[in-house]
Fold this protein.
Amino acid sequence: MGGRCQNNNITKNNGSYQFCEEALQRIITTLASKNDEIQNFIDTLNHTLKGVQANSSSILLELDEEFDGLYSILDEMKESMTNTIKQEQARKSQELQSQLSQCNNALENSEELLEFASRSLDIKEPEEFSKAARQIKDRVTMASAFRLSLKPKVSDNMTHLMVDFSQERQMLQTLKFLPVPKAPEIDPVECLVADNCVTVAWRMPEEDNKIDHFTLEYRKTNFDGLPRVKDERCWELIDYIKGTDYTLSGLKFDSKYMNFRVRACNKAVAGEYSDPITLETKALNFSLDGSSSHLNLKVDDNCVEWDPTGGKSQENKMKGKENKGRSGTPSPKRTSVGSRPSSIRGSRDRFTGESYTVLGQLSFYNAASKQLLYSFKTKFTQPVLPGFMIWCGGLSLSTGLQVPSAVKTLQKHENGMSGSTSSLNNVMHPPSLQH
């Protein structure tokens, strides 16, 4: 009984330990995720703080330039108007000076004539008096004092050059910062990721008839949630979008997610970015498994080519005699397993000489005719991997593609249909298919 109780206690203790260990592991994972999230937020805050400082300095420089431009215009206008006043002053002064000089000359001549006439009154001789009288008469007739206009040619009025900048001052007092469009709001419900296309839709929080266009920025990422400042790719820009949605097509996804943000622009400035949104690409990323290929296949990620020299670095002596006397492209022959070093045997040894195959996980449809090429209709006890046979040629695969919508639709409708005759034409017409 004591032994049984002890065993039961050990079992319970082991179970409790395992439970606590699992719970602690979950807590560690949660804390690590939260720490990563907080660190990303700290990086975002630091990046934003630097942006505020840099953008503020830039805006202050632009403000100085704008006011310097205003000051320059005002100085030019002041100088021009000052010159106009001085020119008017000089013109009137010249006219008055000329008229004043003429009057002074006329007065001097008139005073001289008046004095001569006064002296003539003292002449007693009739003949001499008559002569003097005729001279005075002739001089009076020719005197400039009697032909001189006694009205000023110009007035001292300068009111036509007075200014009143009260309206302009009021206008200057209304100077303010440019009206900036508000940040758009991306609608996650209306966003769609399908058929290697991404449609992003947004709306403005309130109507703004001054918006000229939108700009959309996106970048690929392997992190869910808020965009990360560090270890990220650069934002790519699509400008001058007139509508409130945009579709990126023909994409190849080499990341799990994509970040998107939008901002509105009027004729003068661009507004704030929208809150970024992260969309899952749900793409199939894979590469060819070179360790599973025949030795005479050259495998490089998504490409495979038949290479008669592949794997022969270890077998040159064994195959030197076999290849003598051959010309052109040699026929594939089974390679002796026993002659291969242990490091390159293993999974490759299961192929026959005529089976030049590489494994990677795919389903095949004819992209042009939308015809299903093959499907499995049985239960498998182990994973089933499709293969490719290469014969004196090559093969390239496209990765980062999504399962086409039409294929998904077909899979829902093909129960009871023959796997070799099912066609994508039996369902709604899809966008272009890729394989």
Observations:
- The chain has five helices and 13 strands.
- Helices lie at 2-120, 126-142, 166-173, 316-319, 405-413.
